[in-house]
Amino acid sequence: MGVDEVQRIALYGGNRLRGRVRISGSKNAALAILPAVLLASKKVSLNNVPDITDVRTMLRIIEDLGATIRRRGRNSLDFYPSRLRGYAPPYDLVQKIRASSYLMGSLLARFGRATVPVPGGCDLGPRPIDQHLKGFTALGVDCLIEHGLIKLTADKLSGAHIYFDVVSVGATVNLMLAAAAAEGRTVLENVAKEPEIVDLANFLNAIGAVVKGAGTDVIKIDGVEEFGGAEHTIIPDRIEAGTFMLAAAATGGDLLMGEVIPKHLEAVTAKLREMDVKVEVGPDQIRVFRSGPLAPSDLKTFPYPGFPTDLQPLGMVLLTAAEGTSVVTENVFDGRFRHVDELEKMGARIKVEGRTAVIDGGVPLSGAPVSATDLRAGAALLVAGMIAEGETVLSEAEHIYRGYENIEEKLKSLGAQIRCHRAGRSSGAADDQG
Ligand code: EPZ
Questions:
Q1: Is the pLDDT of residue 410 over 70?
Q2: What are the residues facing 236 on neighbouring strands?
Q3: Annotated active-site residue in 122, 129, 343, 416
Q4: Can you give the pLDDT at residue 432?
Q5: 10 Å Cβ neighbour count for 144?
């Protein structure tokens, strides 16, 4: 596929996205469930696994730890994790993805110990793991950080009552994984309620764990000693679906997304309707289209079920196209406005004060050379390039392939004028588009 070779993407504005787009499996559910596979003692089959670079990296880590993986298809994989070699995943791979921090919880559950490099990942400002370590300590784990490694050891994992100071997806995932094998009951409070947490709980229960309350503020886990195997299908990616919803609105197009779980996208649907965008919701599909002007709006991000922080950069691009003043408040991450500098190169008028950005919308964007600073900022700049006048060249485009499967083919099929430059060669739609 060579997706990770893509370095630059050229876009030409003015095309409305139209048609149907198949939404892939959820990156963030897959990245939580893949480490959980290491708990299983029998074969695990996963379906609807997105073929994206972050997942490929996690698969390489799991193989390096000794699990055998057989690919049944592009999105279907069988795992045989009964014989694992060790509890120390390779530094170079762990550094590539933040989700590798979940290996702490799953290796603790499997071996009672883990040695994991301090995780890397998108630069969204400080990304501490204090809540993860607070939870592990409560389960009886000794935590030591030295020479860039997190060294975790536990004679025994014992259930505990843990109240998180901060709602954290990662800490919730990690403690679900470790507590699944702890002796007795663990109660987790002030947890993340994202659909990906529920999907992980469903997978854990399928291999024999006892996890109750996922999706609510309190999760109760009764540890078990042995986990079996299971077959599980990953939920659709709500952030990819939301990305296409916002792209349809921004380009004034008409997109039908499926399969999705509309409930996972209620905050996005509500916001689009507030901006005078039409959204039709079916049992497992969503249609987004727009004919008139966009209304300005205020956008605030919150943990689920609030408006997702991962769609904040895309929401900001949409708001630049709405006549009038809009305000974006980023309540989840400290530093998630790095895309603003890039949008200003395209003529956007945005003023950032701390966690708030004020957008003076209605001024058409103009194409420019810009950089993807992280996965979702990269996606936002793709959409900005589709509505800007002229050519936009997006560098560091490899970020986008971390989280969007087949993004080039999907956008071309919807009418985007996009040309990808891989190392040494380029594939192009511009000529395809005639
Ligand atoms: C997960 O990151 C997602 N990544 C992110 O998606 C997503 O933006 C984020 O959750 C919020 O929804 C994956 O699922 C792989 P957090 P995570 O812990 O777990 C603070 C994408 O583009 N915090 O929920 O790292 C933290 O600083 C990625 O798909 C602590 O203070 O996010 C942040 O301000 C980007 N201490 C807030 O909590 C901790 O120990 C939420 O972070 C942990 C987190």
A1: yes
A2: 25
A3: 122
A4: 33
A5: 11
Q: How many angstroms does the Cα of residue 167 sit away from the middle of ligand 1? A: 9
For 29-32, the CB contacts below 8 A with 24+ separation are 29/195, 29/196, 29/199, 29/200, 29/234, 29/235, 29/237, 30/55, 30/58, 30/234, 31/55, 31/58, 31/97, 31/99, 31/102, 32/99, 32/102, 32/173, 32/196, 32/197, 32/199, 32/200
User: What is the spatial distance between Cα 419 and Cα 428, in angstroms, rounded to a whole number?
Assistant: 4
Q: Residues 237, 268: contact at Cβ < 8 Å?
A: no
Whole-structure pTM value: 0.96
Task: Dig out the tokens for 337 from the structure.
Answer: 């406005």
User: What is the residue with the minimal CA distance to atom 6 of ligand 1?
Assistant: 310
Q: List, for residues 80-117, the tens digit of each pLDDT value.
A: 998 898 889 998 999 888 899 999 999 999 999 999 99
Report d(CA 191, CA 294) in Å as an integer. 35
CA of 170 to the centre of ligand 1 (A): 6
Structure tokens at 365: 């964007």
Question: Quick one: pLDDT at residue 312?
Answer: 98
Beta-carbon contacts of residue 354 (< 8 Å; ≥ 6 apart): none
Region 3-24+236-422: CATH code: 3.65.10.10
Query: Would the CA dihedral through 209, 212, 217, 223 be positive or negative?
Result: negative
- Closest listed residue to residue 77, CA positions, set 102, 97, 55: 55
CATH 3.65.10.10 segments of the chain: 3-24+236-422, 27-233
The CATH homologous superfamily to which domain 27-233 belongs is Enolpyruvate transferase domain (3.65.10.10)
Atom of ligand 1 nearest to the CA of 334: 34
Dist. CA 47–CA 160, nearest whole Å: 33
pLDDT digits (tens, 9 = 90+) for 237-277: 999 999 999 999 999 999 999 999 999 999 999 999 999 99
